[in-house]
Each structure stands twice: as C-alpha cells, then as structure tokens.
Amino acid sequence: MLDDARNALTRRIAQAKGDQAGAVAAALVTGKRGLIGPAANDALRAAGIYHVVSISGLHMVLAAGVVFWLVRAVLALVPFCALVWPIKKIAAGFAMLGVTAYCAFSGWDIAAERSLIMTLIMLGAILVDRPALSMRNLALAALIALAREPEGLLGPSFQMSFGAVAGLIACARLIDGRLFRRPGAGRIERLVGTGLSAVVGTLATTLMAQIATAPFATYHFQTIRPFGLIGNALTLPLVSLVVMPAAVIGILAYPFALDRPVWWLMGQAVGGMLAISEWIAGFDRATLVLPAFGTGALALLAAGLLLAALLVSRLRWLALPPALLGLGHAAMPKRFDLYIDRQGGGAAIRGPNGSLSVLGSPSAFVLEQWLKADGDGRPAKAVIGGAAKGGQCDRLGCTTRLPDGRAVALVRDRRAFAEDCARAAVLITRLAAPPTCTGPLVIDLRVLAVHGAVALRAEHAGFTARYASGQGRAMPWRPSSTAGASPPPRPERPAGPGDPIPAEPDAAGADATPGAVPAEPLQ
User: Fold this and answer.
1) pLDDT in single tens digits along all 523 residues of the chain
2) Sign of torsion, CA 290 295 298 304?
3) Which of 4, 21, 89, 443 could form a disulfide with 271 if both were Cys (CB 3.0 to 4.6 A apart)?
4) What is the 3-state secondary structure (H, E, C) of 176-197?
5) CA gap 440, 496 in Å, rounded
6) Cβ atoms within 10 A of the Cβ of 53, count?
7) Beta strands of 280-365 (E only): which ranges?
8) What's the Cα-to-Cα distance from 185 to each of 144, 180, 252, rounded to whole Å?
9) What is the DSSP pairing of strand 356-360 with strand 346-350?
10) Where are the domains of the chain?
C-alpha cells in the first residue's frame, strides 16, 4: 500500500510540471527515479549534484529542518506557549516524527536509513540539552548503523556520508561565516556581513564535503567532477530555500488536493537546477575518469581524513603525511594488461598505444567497468563498434598480441585448439580445453567456473593474475556443497615453461594461490 501511494504521488508530481523537471521533482519527494531520462541523469552527475536526487542526508536534514522551523514558528506566535513551553524541544520531537515518516515514505533504503539515524541522534541531542552537531553524536550514529549493517562499512554510501559529516563538523568554526560578523556593526554592515557569510558558508561547506568524500568516490566510481563546487554553490540555495520547503508543503497539502500549484512551483525551481546542471555539463572535462587505485591508497587517505577530523589544534598537521602518501600511491596505480569476463566470451587487451581494445564479445556493462578502472573515459559502445575492436577474428575465434609480442587467442570452436594451443601464450575459451593444451596459460571453462573473471598483468617471466572469486573463501551466499561441486581448475602455466603464475599478495602480505581469493576483488 505504501509503495502504491508512492507511485501515485510520483505520477501526480511529474504530471503537475511535466518534462524532466517534473520527473526530478517527483524523485526528490518519493525517491522514485525511474522517470528521469539518461540525459538528465548525466547532467546532474556532471554538475556534481546527483546526491540531491538520491534520498539521503541532505533530504533528511532539510525535511527535519523545515518541520522543526514550522512547528517552532507556529508555537512562538502564541505568547503562552513561547513563555511557558519548551517549544524548541517540542519542535525537535515533531521533526523526529516527520523525518521518520518521510524516510518510510521515500523507500527506506540504506542511505536514507543511515541519514535518518544520524538526524534522529542530532535531534535527540536537543531533547537532552546537548549540542546537536558534535563528533560524539556522529560516533553514536556510526555505531548504531554498523550494529545493524556491519557490511555497510565497505560501501560507498557509509564512507561518503560519514566522511562528509566528519569533515563538516571538524571545520564547523571555519565555515560558519563568523569572520564577516562584527559586534556593534551598523544595519548595512550587518546585512553585507550576513550575505557574505551565506556565500562563503555555502562554498566552504561544499568544498569541505567534496574534499572529504573525494577519496571514497574516486575509489568506488573512478570519476571526479571538478566543477562540482560550482554546481553545488548554484543549486543548493534553490534546493534549500524553494525545493525542499515546497516538498514539505506539498505533502501536507496533498491529502486536501491542494498540492498541484505547489508541485508546479517546485518544478520551476527544479527546472532551474537542471538548466544549471546542463550548463556545467557542457564544460570541457566536466567529468574526469581516473584509473582505479588499491585499498592501500584508500586506507592512507582515510587515515588522513580521520586525523584531520578527530585531532584538534596543530596536531591536525599529522594528517598531512598519510594523505600525501595516499595521493602518491593513488597517482601510480598498477594496471592490468588483459581482462577476461567470467563467461570467457570476451576480453579487453592493452594495445601498443597503452589503451584497451576488445577481443571477442564482452558485454557493454562489463567493458564499461574495465574502461573506467583503466582510467579510460571512452563509452563502451565506441570501443565495441569502433576501431578499438582488436585482433583478427573468424568463426573459430580471435587472435591478437600483447605489446611485448606474446600471442593471445580466444577460442570459440574446438577446431581451433590444435593451432592456438601451440602458438598462444594465453588461451581464453568458454569451452573445456583438451588436456593436451598445456603450453599456454589456459583460462577455460574449469578455471572460470572456480575463479570467475580474471585480470592478468604481463611480467617478464609470465603473468600476475587477479581473480574475482575462488575456493577457500567462506561466502554466506555460496553453500559449501555448491562450492565443492565446481570443477577443479586446470593447471595454469605462463608463457615461460614450468613457471607458475604469481598471484597478487593479500592484505596480510601472504601470497594468494590459484585456489584462494585475493583480498582485493576485480573491479
């Protein structure tokens, strides 16, 4: 019933304004983003404001703030209530109820739930006469969120939301605009100071949030939005002053069928937000794709953020060494030379010019992930259908060469095994290779069934392999009986005779074997 109500309200909001502004306005209220077209999604991402569409911390705080302000303002109009009742605490209680109801109505996804916990703790601090924004409250929110979902620690939502809030709390005194407020100033000077405080506060808040979330966003998505500061600075005032208040008023007016004018007004503001996003998306290099870096660099960058946020006074300078070291590691990632999908039907191979080309027929989604991990901003369709189609192919399979001259073969038909097993350094097939095919490194049905997708880095003596999965790892979704039923891997050998494939070391420093899973999964 709740989902039916969300769908009905989504259609009502979208129809009140029409076009993509109505679709985005509906998503801002109900969390249903299915009506937003790809062009609008890309523009919002390029402008760095897609977080506005996803129901998360910004929505929770604004929804709670609007309810808090409305209740407190109404009670303050009554002299008896203002003088006798604790109207601030009453307003906080109503805000807690309102934001909980909004979270339930918007879908109650993981990001919204985590933001709800943080907002409830901060509002609860008002009830017990404690500061609403403090690192203790953030720690309590993190403990509650992790107690419910420990695996959330490894996800981008947890890392980015808590990282951003930690950075904002740590720098609250620097970004609240107090430098422009002077005691005893005149009316005009106070007005100018208030305006400068609002502008500087918005820019500083956006910049701090972007700095705090940049390591996690780059690690998980391999993209940065260099003009996100401009996008947030221009659109957040619209969201804070028009869009979210209109959303709250519209929801209150919805049961009385008086909401259509409100949704139309909200759509006008969202239309301005989309116009700004499209303008920024037209900038050169509005979206930069960076090569994927390892967990070591992310850990150093996260340590720098923690030291900067948790320490006080000049001790915060201790965050500089790990942050610089993490940036250095992130700037020099180790790239793979050959990616193989889990079905064995396609691969991406590094060419002489350093970019990846396609071998076989990998899916567009998989190829897009490979390109992003390699720091390549080309769309998958251009690589699949363009000049980047690598190698020579026929009905039996495809062949190509690595930059060092070693041959790579992708076999589609069993008749090709005799020739390709004799000349290839790496043989890829979704079939079961014959036992006599022992010369090359063989990635066939048996290997793929156990290890899944494979990435290879060419070395002088052979290849370094990274597997997506494997045996020897307890996974809740993979029963032991099912894992044991998988066919065993073939003996794997590099191009050099008799040399085993060195595996990537795991997080503890131990070498992973073909039967074990490395600590860092293939992206």
Assistant:
1) 888 888 899 999 998 888 899 999 998 888 888 889 989 988 998 888 888 887 777 778 888 888 899 999 999 999 999 999 999 999 999 999 999 988 888 877 777 887 888 899 989 999 998 887 788 888 888 898 888 888 888 888 888 888 888 888 888 776 665 655 666 667 777 777 777 777 777 777 888 888 898 999 899 988 888 888 888 888 888 888 888 888 888 888 888 988 899 999 999 999 999 999 999 988 888 888 889 898 899 999 999 999 998 888 888 899 999 999 999 999 888 888 899 998 888 899 988 888 888 888 888 889 988 998 888 888 888 777 554 455 688 888 888 888 888 889 999 989 989 888 888 889 999 999 898 887 788 998 888 888 889 999 888 878 888 888 755 455 565 554 443 334 444 544 433 433 333 444 333 333 333 333 333 333 3
2) negative
3) 21
4) CCHHHCCCCCCHHHHHHHHHHH
5) 9
6) 23
7) 288-289, 338-340, 346-350, 356-360
8) 45, 10, 40
9) antiparallel
10) 1-48+226-289, 295-331, 338-484
Give dist(CA 168, CA 172) in Å, integer: 6
Question: Per this entry, what is the length of the chain?
Answer: 523
Nearest to 214 by CA among 199, 229, 202, 201: 229
DSSP 3-state percent helix, strand, coil across the chain (nearest 5)? 60, 10, 30
Residue 397 has which token pair?
A: 């399979």
Torsion of CA 34, 35, 40, 42, to 10 degrees: 20
User: In degrees rounded to 5, what are phi and psi of residue 142?
Assistant: -65, -40
Q: What is the four-CA torsion angle of 195, 196, 202, 207, rounded to 10 degrees?
A: 170
List Cβ neighbours of 311 (8 Å cut-off, separation of 6 or more): 318, 319
CA separation (Å) from 37 to 33, 44, 267, 409? 9, 11, 16, 40
The rounded radius of gyration (Å) of the Cα atoms in the chain is: 28
Tokens of 271: 């239309």
Quote the tokens at residue 302. Answer: 């996260």
SS3 138: helix
Name the one residue in this structure whose structure tokens are 């339930």: 104
Using CA atoms, how far apart are residues 180 and 165, in angstroms rounded to an integer? 24
Sheet strands side by side (includes 397-401): 392-393, 397-401, 407-411, 426-429, 441-443
Q: Give the angle 143-147-151 at the CA atoms, nearest 5°.
A: 105
Q: Is residue 451 a contact partner of residue 482, using CB atoms and an 8 Å limit?
A: no
Give the Cα separation of 339 and 193 in Å (integer). Answer: 57
Could you tell me which residues come within 8 angstroms of residue 458 by beta carbon, excluding any fewer than 6 positions away? 337, 338, 402, 403, 404, 406
Find the angle CA(317)-CA(322)-CA(327) to the nearest 5 degrees.
115
In the sheet that holds 346-350, the strands lie side by side as 356-360, 346-350, 338-340, 454-458, 463-467
| Residue among 191, 491, 370, 460 at smallest CA distance from 378 | 370
Structure token pair of residue 198 = 């609002």
Q: Which residues pair with 224 in a beta bridge?
A: 288
C-alpha 406/C-alpha 127 separation (Å) is: 70
